Amino acid sequence: MINLKIDPEFQSQIPPLTDDEFKQLEENILKEGKLLSPLIVWNNTLVDGHNRYTILQKHPEIYFSTMPLRFENREEAIAWICQNQLGRRNLSPEQKRYLLGKQYEAEKKAAKIFRGNQYTLAKKSGGAHDDNHHSGKKTCDRIAEENGVSRASVLRASHYTRGIDIADNLSPGIKQKVFSGEVKFTNEEMSKLVQASVEHRSDVLAQILHPEALEVLESASAEFEPEKAEPVPMPTPQTEEFRCYHVPDEFMKVYKSLSRATEMMKNSWKKTLKNNPSYFTDPEKQKVLRFAMQRPANYLTEIETYLEKALAEALEGEKTA
User: Does the structure show a pLDDT above 90 at 68?
Assistant: First the structure.
């Protein structure tokens, strides 16, 4: 039994087996007593066959062989893994879309690395590289043809893949939830995440994952019109019910001024929270939000306390007089 290196990035490109699929694979290998297909390796690093290698570690008596492949760099290895996995029949649409985009992105990076080397493809083969495969077709067109999709589908898959990787970096484990169908993202949502600035990506992801939070915010921030000429009904709390108090004209100036201040605060909070929706869903960020909410709430409570005290003093003064 040889010890092969496991590269987490290589392994993460391979869609995981379900428990039943893994169990069935293990039973088949034990029945055969050997691996029918060799493990693919690159410089003693496992490239393909991670599930089978896990089973081998449990059953070292099983005979197996390895097949070394040569890659110029790790991006070429990733592209090969994706291309190999795309040949599987049991991929979900999300897995296929991700692998399609990952292969394209990996081959583009491999091409850039290769062009940056001292020896160019032109010197090695007599032809120009320029993002072309040795067949002469552009990478995007070739991958599209190999998988029976359009060129536009490959480009959309590229944005989708980059978005999934960003989402998984922000929220580890989310890629597997996408592959299992527990979470679904559209191409448009992933493009929005890719195009967002680095500092805003967590909020964009929160907005995508929890759109209901924004709906609540929009509902709570309905338009207010303090400029109406007619008196505006103001609910006043009573014992168990509310009655309407109409602001007299001579009080309207003060009422409008305070109403504008309230509206300015609402709009400011609405804008800030709309741009930072993760403060609704992240427990640590919620603490900051709640702390910020305490200040205006405490101030209004202080005014309410002062009003009650001032009114009580005024009534006491009238009795004394």
Answer: yes
Q: pTM above the 0.90 mark?
A: no
Q: Are 310 and 303 in contact (CB under 8 A)?
A: no
Give exposure, 40-55, as e/b (b: 16+ Cβ within 10 Å): bbbeeebbbbbbbbeb
Interacting residues of 155 by C-beta distance below 8 A, sequence separation 6+ = 104, 140
Average pLDDT, the chain: 81
Assign residue 267 a region (left: φ > 0; alpha: ψ between -120 and 50; beta: otherwise).
alpha
How far apart are the C-alpha atoms of 171 and 174, rounded to whole Å?
A: 6
Identify any residues that bridge with 68 across adjacent strands, giving them in sequence order. 41
What are the two backbone dihedrals, phi and then psi, of residue 183, each rounded to the nearest 5 degrees? -125, 140
Q: pLDDT tens across 24-60, in order?
A: 999 999 999 999 999 999 999 999 999 999 999 999 8
Q: Ranked by mean pLDDT, which of 118-127, 150-159, 251-260 comes out on top?
A: 150-159
CB-based contact 91:99 (threshold 8 Å): yes
> How far is C-alpha 272 from the geometric centre of its chain's CA atoms?
20
What's the rounded Cα separation, in Å, for the pair 112 and 24?
41
Which neighbouring-strand residues pair with 59?
none
**Is the distance from CB of 212 to CB of 281 less than 8 angstroms?**
no
Query: In the Cβ-directed half-sphere of 54, how many Cα atoms lie within 13 Å?
Result: 10
Per-domain residue ranges of the chain: 5-215, 220-320
Burial 129-157 (b: 16+ CB within 10 A, else e): eeebeeeeeebbebbbebbebeeebbebb
On the question of pLDDT at 216 being above 70, the answer is: no
